[in-house]
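explain this:
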Amino acid sequence: MTRVIHTGDTHIGYQQYNAPERRRDFLEAFRTVAADAVDADVDAVIHAGDLFHDRRPGLVDLQGTVDVLRTLADAGVPFLAVVGNHEGKRDAQWLDLFEDLGLATRLGPTPHLIGDTAFYGLDFVPRSRRDDLEYEFDPVPADAEHAALVSHGLFEPFAHADWDTEELLEAATVDFDAALLGDNHTADTAEVRDTWVTYCGSTERASASEREDRGYNIVEFEAGEEPAIRRRGLDSTREFVFVDVDLAEGEGTDRVQERVREYDLEDAVVIVTVEGEGRPITPATIETLAVDRGALVARVNDRRELSDAPEDVSVSFADPDEAVRERIRELGLSDAALEIDRTVRDDDVVDANLRETVERRVRSLLEDDRGAFEAAPDRDPAAVTTVADALSGDSEENETGSEAGEPDDAVDEESDGSGSADGSGGQPTEVGESDEPADDGQVSMGDFT
């Protein structure tokens, strides 16, 4: 029997709500998963993508990740992973570095045998490149009893899906017993074409909409049996306190504060959601009260301001990110425009190098995906957070998927978070480089691993 931990969407390096404590939380959640793996003596830890929240993780996050991976290696627990859209680069990946250090294995079309199970990998692939993708995998080893695919994306039949799972399984040259997936921050399992398809969910709440407990899967492969998938929660993640208030007519800030006082808020992230027919409230006053009572972070979302605002009002100060997402959809900005905006706003890009950096990225997009310059009027507003983060990759489960506990996450600082928005998950190459498909117009698995 082969028993593994299936995890993913750890989003290490995400400084949610601009709080350094939250940044540490994401790394510590990954550390907890590794500790559980060692204690349970599993055969491997399988990571389904978005190990990092950004393709340029900070040094402290890299050092912490290496430390966790060394813990696994020292205990003899292999770490196998694929690349997600948040961390994906167009050249070498962080996983390649960890593999060179002997701390990880990057899965691909060639099987990696753990016990009697062959594991294959499929990195995140932008939608614009999937039509020509050939799902070619090397044959299953003769001594393997099971085959499992590890991938990152929003797959059917789950909410907000944009990837045809049946097509993948039918076209694949290997009959998979299970598909261990990442990108959707909500854990879920379904059977497709006699294959168990499962999301493990994220290890930390990357969005205010992710109310369910965080955790990971334990998957057991036994000869002659179907894969057994069990969910295990993470008890040590930071507490989120959700205060839902339905204001009656005549009620206002005082009533919301009264509800907030009913909860123990010590070191918690507090999310106050207000609905109903009551009077206007003052979010800052409520947030200050929560922080004074020990909350790490407090956010107030007044749903009424979104639903009752005049048509010409495009920004709600109670939830500006939601308004920005909606406005982006209305503008129909292309992926290239979003990438340029993200570059201009990037504090890591020195002003003196801005022109050169933008030019390099535009040329790279022209070489790699001309479709990125097409307008996207139907872009789901939940697939992005702010313009600057629109191309980071997921939507924290895209409110539309990620953040809302659905697909990976657009990871929103204030309210949600991830879901593979459009698939531009990679850092542009230098001018002159190209990772276009072969002359025959077909794309093989090797092009993405």
